[in-house]
Amino acid sequence: MEKIVVKNLYKIFGSRSKLARDLLEKGVSKKDIQEKTGAVVGVQNANFSIQNGEIFVIMGLSGSGKSTLQRLLNRLWEPTSGSILIDGKDITKLDKNSLRKVRREHFCGMVFQQFAILPHRTVLENVAFGLEIQGVAKEERFERAQKMIDVVGLSGNEQSYPTQLSGGMQQRVGLARALTVDADILLMDEAFSALDPLIRRDMQNELLELQQKMQKTIVFVTHDLDEALRLGDRIAIMKDGEIVQLGTAEEIIAKPANDYVKAFIQDIDRSEVYTAGSIMQEPREIAHSNDGPRTILRKMQRKGLSSIFMIDTERALVGRIDADPLAAYLKENSGDVAGKVPAELVEKTLPLSKETPLQEVMVKIQQVPGPLPVLDEKKHLVGVIVRGAIIAALSSHPETDETKGEDQ
User: Fold this and answer.
1) Among candidate residues 7, 29, 19, 9, the one with its CA nearest the CA of residue 240
2) Which domain, by its residues, includes 335?
């Protein structure tokens, strides 16, 4: 279900915004528009939707418009034109009182790179601050704040002051404060950028674990592609105020939209992004449990396969049959072959799910002589992985017909 829908959204800073927009629509560059009109293009013609419970990452270099776009979503900055729908309601048309109500109901506030916690207040007081602004009674707000302190792993630090906490702990305070108000949209702007790499990784893990429990809709701004790939269900890459590509990590790496995106992803470790589902191929042929030995060997010979996977009547995986042992069996028993393939010729193999990370696939494929089967949630065979597909995925080149046929 769509939580946020953005349509034809523009933000142009300066008094000549209408002229600047007209020039944009004629293809004039952001730099030339600033020189001609003095106006600065923050966001141009953004169109996208964010699903309920999704981590939506906006990324780009400094000045790309990513933070501007995020601040438009709750009208912290007023858009020049366009619409922003929250649960179907266009908040660009709301007056101040109605907007304030929407913010209270839907937005947890923002978590910034600089922790923005109050130095003269304790952890408990900081976490409860949003509820205090809302007029929640002291006992209730402290009770709710305590629950969130426990969730983010700060128990025992309730009476500490910010200066007594590490950077990672301070960021947890900011996160707990945003979550305590219990709204359904969380805005995070470079939230972990000021942290040391190890603490940053811990906070990313913390956010993913929290998301499993709380299922917030999170809009996360970052300039770090590794962070975007790790956190984002989908990623919007921005340049000069424009979204130049929007998709999952796998979609962006597999098919970068332009040279700008290619430059972003050129040093990415693809094994950390791809999954079994993204590199699997359709089986070229399948053996059924009621097929006879000659039928199965004929299927393999017709498709040029060295092995084949067998499924039962309910499409569940039975195992893998290799051509050489099957051919030897038929030769030895040429006059007396009937019924099913002997059980000893059906090898048990290591099944994968579509979500299995490529790094794990690479380890498992070394343990078997042939391809690996990929199963869906019902344990049905949906694909196979061959060594050539792994090589193609790790390279920057698209898959070829040669890699598709290899090992099958």
Assistant:
1) 29
2) 277-405
In the chain, how many domains are there? 2
Q: Which residue has the tokens 């013609």?
A: 45
357 secondary structure, DSSP code = B
User: From CA 265, how far away is CA 250, in angstroms rounded?
Assistant: 11
Tokens representing residue 270 in the block:
């693809």
Instruction: Say yes or no: 322 and 383 in one domain.
Output: yes
AA identity, residue 64: S
Phi-psi bin for 357: left (phi > 0), alpha (psi -120 to 50), beta?
beta
Count the Cβ atoms, other than its own, within 10 Å of residue 19.
16
Answer for the pair 309, 373: CB distance below 8 angstroms, yes or no: yes
CATH number, residue 175: 3.40.50.300
The answer to whether the beta carbons of residues 132 and 141 sit under 8 Å apart is: yes
Domain termination site, one of 235, 268, 301: 268
Which residues on neighbouring strands pair with residue 185, listed in sequence order? 107, 217
Cα dihedral: 165, 169, 175, 176 (round 10): -80
- Closest to 13 measured CA to CA, from 77, 75, 62: 77
Count of beta carbons in the 10 Å neighbourhood of residue 112: 20
Burial 114-144 (b: 16+ CB within 10 A, else e): ebebeeebbbbbbbbbbbeeeebeeeebbeb
Same-domain status, 119 and 208: yes
The C-alpha atoms of residue 140 and residue 289 are separated, in whole angstroms, by: 63
**pLDDT tens-digit profile, the chain (408 residues):** 899 999 999 999 988 888 888 888 888 888 888 888 988 999 999 999 999 999 999 998 888 999 999 999 999 999 999 999 999 999 999 999 999 888 888 887 678 766 678 889 999 999 998 888 888 899 999 999 998 888 888 899 999 998 898 888 888 888 888 888 878 899 988 888 877 887 888 888 888 888 888 889 999 999 888 889 889 999 999 998 999 999 998 888 888 899 888 887 877 777 777 888 888 988 989 999 989 888 999 999 998 999 999 999 888 999 999 999 999 988 888 656 667 888 899 998 888 998 888 888 888 888 887 889 999 888 899 999 988 888 777 775 444 444 444 444
DSSP for 121-152, written as a single string? S-HHHHHTHHHHHTT--HHHHHHHHHHHHHHT
CB atoms under 10 Å from CB of 336, counted, come to 6
Q: What length is written for the chain?
A: 408
